[in-house]
Amino acid sequence: MNNSFFRYLLWLLFFVLLQSLVFSQLPLGTYVYPMVYVLFILMLPIGYSRMAVLLWAFLTGLCIDIFTHSILGAHTSATVAMAYARPFILKLVTSKEDRENNVQLITKRNLGSRFFLTYISLAILLHHTIYFLIDTFSFFDFIHTVLLIVCSALLSILFVFFLSSLMPTSWNSASN
User: Fold this and answer.
1) Contact, 75 vs 57, CB < 8 A?
2) Contact at 8 Å (CB) between 104 and 170?
3) CA–CA separation, 75 vs 57, rounded Å?
4) CA count, 13 A, side-chain hemisphere, 112
5) Measured over all CA atoms, what is the biggest interatomic distance in the chain, rounded to whole angstroms?
6) Taking the CA of residue 58 as centre, how many other CA atoms within 13 Å lie in the half-sphere pointing to its CB?
7) 119 falls in which pLDDT band (50, 70, 90)?
8) Looking at the whole model, is its pTM more than 0.85?
9) d(CA 119, CA 108)
């Protein structure tokens, strides 16, 4: 196995621990549940294989489902759906030049703040919509579900945007 696999595995472990030990334990209220682990999938290189991104998304979601004691499959489904939509979202917010250069790591420093914020906002909104629709599994209290989606997505976007500024500009510089 190549070195990048183990590097990605370490980053996955970091985000799973961060989500399960810190962000899942924050008492933020009824309508707020920040999910920062999605940053791991969102930061993968643009030229990375679609199948590999989907497999990493499945593994990430499964780990979060297990360690946060949520409905098994809710995080997994939402994360895989977000990973599947990732190329389409990237096509909307990045230039052809960025896609052809296979930006090593998708961060706000590599793409620019405006494009990165648009990218994470669309992806997180999609992720949270799928997650909370699976979690509530009902349209009975639709207003409550919409509030959960919007409030959680806004806080997640804020945390992910902040965390991304702390991340390295490439996976390789993380090990140096």
Assistant:
1) no
2) yes
3) 10
4) 7
5) 52
6) 6
7) very high
8) yes
9) 10
HSE-up of 43 (CA within 13 Å, CB side)? 24
Q: Where are the alpha helices (DSSP H) in the chain?
A: 3-17, 38-42, 50-67, 74-93, 96-100, 108-111, 113-136, 142-166
Nearest-angstrom CA–CA distance, 56 and 65: 14
CB atoms within 10 A of CB 53: 19
Cα 39 to Cα 28, 31, 97: the distances in Å are 20, 21, 23
Place of tokens 């919409």: 146
Q: Is the pLDDT confidence value at 169 over 70?
A: no
Say whether 145 sits in a helix, a strand or coil.
Answer: helix
* Burial status of residue 18 (CB atoms within 10 A of its CB: 0-12, 13-18, 19 or more): middle
Take residue 158 and report the two structure tokens written for it: 């804020």
